Amino acid sequence: MNDPRFASIDAFAEQNRDAILRDITRLVAVPSVEGTPAPGAPFGPGPRAALDKALEIAAELGLATHNADGYIGWAETGPVADGQKYLATITHCDVVPEGNGWDADPYTVRVRDGWLLGRGVADDKGPAILTLYALKYLKDNGVALKYPVRALLGVNEETRMEDVDYYAEHYEQPAFCFTPDAEFPVCNGEKGGFNGEFVSPVLEGGIIRDFAGGVAHNAVPDRAFCVVAVPASRLKAGAGLTFTEENGLTTIRAVGKSGHAATPEGTINAISLIVSCLLESGVCSETETAYLQVLAKLHASTDGSALGIAADDGLFTPLTIIGGTIECKDGCLRQTFDCRYPTNTDADKLTAAMQAVCGTAAKLENLTSRVPFYIDAGSPAIQTLINTYNEVTGENQKPFTMGGGTYARHFPYAVSFGPEHADLPLPEFAGPMHGANEGANFDKLIEALKIYILALLRLQEIEL
Asked: Which pTM was predicted?
């Protein structure tokens, strides 16, 4: 590393290791799944409490803070005057539900073999604390800033991203923004997103009494159950399935392997295990069977080929689709899906293909979509980030595109920038983002802090 500033950055990051761990632990301890809106808490009390805690930590670090009506907040190195260009980072303090399969309390950070375990250590509370310490470095060292820096703290990223919509409506956008909510080195493009529900007809005269599973539409479910009015002896056994009988009803329970909807490789969808069991057992009514056959095509492969929607444009990774949650409501089954698609398809094509699969057995409801976005990898800010990453790590990486959806697409000039490492295997005791025992390598988080500080310094040196 030839940059003379790096010695100071390295010393700062190492000296603050204990404090960073302490503050990540404090923020993770606040359960912040979206809840019922309340005055001053538009996304529920949990996200608001997490925002308050993050701003409290920022104030303790000597940073100026602002809470924008509970929709979003920020810390900054100094006031941003009207019309003044500024830089921003954006992380989020909300999390997906804890789900099942944890070895310990999801909201108590554990340290094991250099890994932090807890809901949000990777997505995105750990990175949120890193951005606050990056600003602390700028403040403590009296860095003269051409562009003030604002560390935005969102609280609605995991569901609708209405926090950044609120910000765009009420505040000037940054000249450039990066979000530490993905993988290194630099992600300069994100697939489109297509979400909705497969809804059954009203199921009368069948054998299904209840069916539930999953914790979020954008996570592969690792638990599901279904209550059916048939004896267990008529059900086909399978891996991950257990049956219990009581009062003439059988409860089928399934255990799979969870993971993020954007990277479903290696996951096992618990809902699909039950769907397969019911179809192979041949116990359902004609209406139930027809609907389950639609779900079987959804779950058959995560590339959408069974639904006739597979797509690959050579720019992004191929299309993915997963079934996230299922519930029985008003006599109907409702299966959510989460699809991430490249540029050679669109929501209209996906809708038409999936409606053809549904026929009269199911209908599509609550459809939403977002188009892919892409920023030229040769642009000055992105080159600054990728060069900084490569110099700090000694690697020779290039920007990439991904299936995940981050805040970056909501800003005019933005990318996602770490801190995850796709090539770093998870230990047996740690899980992925959105999974049980969510883990983050602490040394890599500290390295990311160094990268962020140096990148923010270098972004001051280019024209935005």
From this structure: 0.76
